[in-house]
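Data card: per-record layout.
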Amino acid sequence: MFIVQHRKLFYIFSGLLLLASVVALSVWGLKPGIDFKGGSLFEVTYPDGRPEKTEVEEALKPLAVDASVRPTRENGFIIRMKDLTLAEQGSVRSAVSFEGKQNIVEERFDTIGPLLGREALGKSFVAIALVILCIVIFITFAFRKVSLPVASWKYGIITIVALLHDVFIPTGAFAFLGHYAGFEVDTLFVTALLVVLGFSVHDTIVVFDRVRENLRISHETRNHKEFATIVGESIEQTFVRSINTSLTTVIALVVLYFVGPEITQHFSLALLIGIIAGTYSSIFIGSPLLVTVERWQQRNS
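The structure for this 301-residue chain is written out next.
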């Protein structure tokens, strides 16, 4: 019952996080990667041993190609740059080989046009919107037999609020990291958001389903408890399960972030922030909102 009784404190905390995310997005925005803005992608390996990342960055700096260098495999780099001409591509090859002093193997040199980038960005937004819509329809259908004291469609609306919370927080974090650390968002970031949505709604449904079951038991036994009490008991009954499920995932993501290849670090970080936010919203936001909605209905009836 502690969470339900002190729900306003959790609303305020989430409100502050959301405000910070909106401010970060409004002031700095997201730094789009090559997937969205177009450009050139160069993957190169060094058979005789990879130089330091800073050495490659310094070699490319005079070319003003807006290069983002990330290690890949054991002896290579993936370099993302603006759209290059053929002459500029030759200059890049020369720079990364340090004017021929190091042997290089060109794995690929791809160009993504701005039109394809805008198309990918549009499809990403559509994918997120469709996932949220399908989740809401599913929850409304799954809880269709729950009409009192909160209608089934309101469970779906509350889920939207929780999911928006889970999307905005990692997005705001990447706006901050993009400004101060140069983090870019790409299709992997969108994939991370979609995974977060699925993970978050799973936690939310676990609690909502326990609320539905406890409402049924209360009705059948004629042990008419207050709705706030039923929600509080449902949270307590699922709290350990939700935390343990999320904790095992968080541990795996922390290991992946620090031990895995650098190319997956941003992906694992987005997942890490999103899953923590999703677990928090399922327990401390979504379920208490059921009680808030029920109280509003009572005052307006």
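Known properties of this structure: Strands lie at 39-45, 68-72, 76-81, 105-112. The first strand starts at residue 39 and ends at 45.

See the next section for split statistics.
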